[in-house]
Amino acid sequence: MVLGIYGSGGLGREVLDLALSVNAKSIEWEKIVFIDDNKSVPIVNGSDVFSFEEFRAFFPAGVSKIVIAVGEPVIRQKLREKVAADGYGLQTLVHPSAFVGTDTHLGDGTIVQFGSFVSCNSDIGENVLIQPITCIGHDCIIGRDAVVSPLAAISGNCRIGERAYIGGSVPVKESITIGSDSIVGMGSAVLRDIPDNVVALGNPARPMKNNDDGRVFK
């Protein structure tokens, strides 16, 4: 089996380290490569780089899977839909140091990075990115293509919408809902619900403006 990491930037290199850590425990992939449609070099951190068209030619869907290594939620969705249209399955990756609780579901393509804790009876959707050293409490639901940044602490019974972005070091009070396509800025404290499609900041976090262009990284 071949693993294609879609994205060869900083996050892609971090995901490569994660995949190598998994392979060090038990060989899952005979080959790990990058996919980058804007590639400028043939090799990154020892792994070959292919455009998606090249990847399709060399590694058909029956012998390979793909993991999305892009931190922009809306791009995560677009790439997820793109690779699915060509028949590729998404690879779920969990770092050996991470903890995933009993009866917690991880959707296809979800990444759980180093030192993270995902408690019991939670439902993590497809293609979610959980960055290093985060805590997700019991009975949480996180929608597809969402991103949870390092050191975030999401308490139990929370609901995080699709393509939401939770910034670094953000605590979220229990039983909170954060809407789809919303951004919670770094260091904010979420003590009450956040609606869809807004940028929320502060302590307590409150909507400051609409997320009109749907992008985190401008």
| Chain-averaged pLDDT | 97
The portion of residues forming beta strands comes to 25-35%
Instruction: Characterize the largest beta sheet: strand count, sense, and whether it forms a barrel.
Output: 8 strands, mixed
The CATH class label of the largest domain is: Mainly Beta
User: What class do helices, strands and sheet pairing give?
Assistant: alpha/beta
State the distance separating the first and last CA atoms: 36 Å
Helix content: 10-25%
- CATH topology-level name of the largest domain: UDP N-Acetylglucosamine Acyltransferase, domain 1
Shape label: globular
| Poorly predicted sequence stretches spanning 5 or more consecutive residues | none
**Helix and strand pattern:** EHEEEHEHEEEEEEEEEEEEEEEEEEE
- Helix tally? 3
Q: What is the β-strand count?
A: 24
CATH architecture of the largest domain: 3 Solenoid
By CATH's scheme, which homologous superfamily of the largest domain applies?
Answer: Hexapeptide repeat proteins
Radius of gyration equals: 17 Å
Number of domains: 2
Q: What topology, given as strand order, has the largest sheet?
A: 7-10-13-16-19-22-23-24
